[in-house]
Design goal:
Number of helices: 7
Mean pLDDT: 96
Order of helices and strands: EHEEHHEHEEEEEEEEEEHHH
Low-confidence stretches: none
Bound molecules: glutamine
Shape: globular
Number of strands: 14
Strand content: 25-35%
Structural class: alpha/beta
Distance between the termini: 33 Å
Strand order of the largest sheet: 2-1-3-4-14-13
């Protein structure tokens, strides 16, 4: 079995260790003899995203987001084709914002988003950012799990019709939102860096499963052999203990 991944804008969208998400996917695939094939796609590079099982887009500063907008918008039709052919999308922070209607940056400039989802993002008062550790209670196709991470965003994402989960600690989509991220079965967008997947192995396996399903529709998460790793469990436990939240 193989997993074909495209990491979009790998050279500019990689905040707070987002690259660790790719390393985690690779390791969890290799340990199970799944052939992990990674491609990258930068500004101006040609790629048919529908060829991939998974597309990953990390977070970035406003300047980087601004620089990739024309290229990203030029791929809109191809991204639609990928979504229609069951390529799964994992989007972190700045990447998540750009799949909505628009993003208004800290300096007030407005960037048009891909518009695949009805949410939009507006930066609040200058200097006020949602920063810190975050724990959410998420629902992944009926699988209830607590996800831990780190958030740092000025953008306030509103009108999210399919949130990923409820905030237990931290901010999430906006100050006082109470809800975090976006998940609709085809794409998972979240403000959680940290990076996300090393601290949340179950989410990593969920993403691998969603991606494998593109070419193996009957594949289920139970078919992935269990991997024992005391370090990811210890990282999770440290956060749950610190915030006195039950895992
Ligand atoms: N520049 C965006 C914001 O500040 C995204 C930041 C990020 O990806 N961490 O909201």
């Amino acid at each position: 079995m193989e997993l074909k991944v495209c990491w979009m804008y790998h050279d500019i969208m990689d905040l707070y260790g987002d690259k660790g998400n790719i390393l985690t996917l690779k390791k969890r695939c290799m340990d199970r003899n799944i052939d992990f094939q990674l491609s990258t796609c930068g500004i101006g590079q040609s790629a048919d995203l529908s060829d991939f099982d998974l597309v990953f887009l990390g977070g970035g500063a406003d300047k980087e987001q601004m620089s990739l907008i024309p290229d990203l918008l030029s791929r809109k039709e191809n991204i639609q084709k990928a979504l229609d052919s069951h390529t799964f999308f994992l989007l972190i922070c700045g990447g998540y914002q750009l799949f909505g209607q628009y993003y208004i940056a800290a300096d007030g400039s407005k960037m048009e988003g891909l518009g695949f989802n009805s949410y939009y993002t507006d930066t609040g008062k200058a200097g006020s950012r949602c920063i810190g550790n975050i724990i959410i209670d998420a629902n992944l196709d009926g699988l209830q799990t607590k996800i831990v991470g780190f958030e740092n965003h000025g953008g306030q994402t509103l009108h999210v019709d399919h949130p990923l989960g409820k905030v237990c600690k931290g901010y999430g989509n906006a100050f006082d939102a109470g809800l975090e991220g976006y998940y609709d079965g085809r794409m998972l967008g979240t403000y959680l860096h940290g990076p996300l997947l090393p601290k949340n192995p179950l989410v990593a396996d969920f993403v691998i499963t969603k991606a494998l399903k593109k070419r193996n529709p009957d594949f289920t998460m139970e078919q992935l052999p269990h991997l024992e790793n005391p370090f990811d469990q210890a990282a999770r436990k440290a956060l749950f203990d610190r915030f006195e939240i039950k895992e």
